[in-house]
Amino acid sequence: MTDVDAWRGQVRAWLAGTVPPRGPEQDASGDLAVFRNLSDDDEHALLEAVRAYRRARYDAGYGALTLPLEHGGAGLPASYAIAMAQEEAAFAVPPSTELISVTTGLVGPAVAMFGTPGQRAEYAGPLLRTDLLACQLFSEPGAGSDLAALACRAVLDGDEWVLDGQKVWSSGARFADHGLLLARTDPDVPKHRGITAFLLPMRTPGVEVRPIRQMSGGASFAEVFLTGARVPDGLRIGGVGEGWRVATATLAFERTASGSGTRRKGGTVDDVVQLARSLGRTSDPVVRQQLADLHVRSVLRAATAERVARAAAAGVSPGPAGSVGKLLASDLLVRTGETAADLLGGRITADTGEGFAWTEHLLGAPGYRLAGGTDQVQRTVIGERVLGLPPEPRVDKDVPFSALRRG
């Protein structure tokens, strides 16, 4: 028996005393959507259920498993986080939301890594325990894939920074207590060097959150407008002009989490295998080859996540390996949907049962190739920082942001 196996037994016993076992109602839910769309009331209720569970898990010593000990984590390798997710799958654990994942997987670790001792003491623990919820305020209408082109301004006034600008595609912003914000503090240097990060209280005067209503009826995303909003310098995360370091580490956390396999997104390889069984297709040699291919890709993703999380547990930023994991995860998600569509045939467009559930996966999977950094961005990172290929031409590399043409 390995250490992980013994630890699994402890986790299983704790889960059995904390949440009920998974029942038929969970298996019959048919939720294969990549992006969940809920009403405000339903999302709030789910958030509270997840927070109650996450607090209990954190207090039991099972929160922030792969974060270094000095950052409030357990310092364990990714195999423990994967084991935790596998054990949780047998119980009626409330499904996580994007806001919870951003809080515990991105903002909490970023504050723990870059914050001052005082900031870590005040915010890191509450974020990891979900006592505080935090969204990500990075993307802008004109700065998505080219995030360093962000135009949100922060001007120092005494011991406060005055914020003006707009952010977009912020998951769960209307329920967040804080937002990890990137703003431009020096427009007269090249774009990557004039950015600073802040932990912005979302109830600050001058902060307006507008839900983005989707055609599905949900409004998980929001746009955030900043008009003369003031944030104390004491809530600056990292040094002035060092926001790009915070951003790249946070994005690496995001890509690592996306590729870890511990956060369910849409249908899984096991779901496709079950679909093939229910349709009596598992003896078809072509189908067997497709399922084997998905399994191999799933193992590759898990192995990459293990390697990245070991580095993270040692206090090393995930770096470009996070891009490898994100690329593997988005590719697997798309291929999983395509295999399900092949199995279902015409039912994928006409069925209101299992076929409809897979339609939600099939329509959402391409969006995952954009969320958290496009596939093209990940390939650029891998090409330059892993394979050592010549960097792409960047004519604006040494040009002050104020001299760049925009729009």
From TrEMBL:
GO terms for molecular function: flavin adenine dinucleotide binding; long-chain fatty acyl-CoA dehydrogenase activity. Transmembrane segments: none annotated. Its EC number is 1.3.8.8. Signal peptide: none annotated. It holds the Pfam family Acyl-CoA_dh_M. InterPro entries: Acyl-CoA_Oxase/DH_mid-dom, Acyl-CoA_Oxase/DH_mid-dom_sf, AcylCo_DH-like_C, AcylCo_DH/oxidase_C, AcylCoA_DH/ox_N, AcylCoA_DH/ox_N_sf, AcylCoA_DH/oxidase_NM_dom_sf, Mycobact_Acyl-CoA_DH. It comes from the Bacteria. Its cofactor is FAD. Residues 241-387 form the Acyl-CoA dehydrogenase/oxidase C-terminal domain. Residues 55-129 form the Acyl-CoA dehydrogenase/oxidase N-terminal domain. SUPFAM superfamilies: Acyl-CoA dehydrogenase C-terminal domain-like, Acyl-CoA dehydrogenase NM domain-like. Residues 135-217 form the Acyl-CoA oxidase/dehydrogenase middle domain. GO terms for cellular component: plasma membrane. The keyword Oxidoreductase applies. Keywords: FAD, Flavoprotein, Oxidoreductase. PANTHER family: ACYL-COA DEHYDROGENASE, ACYL-COA DEHYDROGENASE FADE34. Belongs to the acyl-CoA dehydrogenase family. This is Acyl-CoA dehydrogenase, long-chain specific.
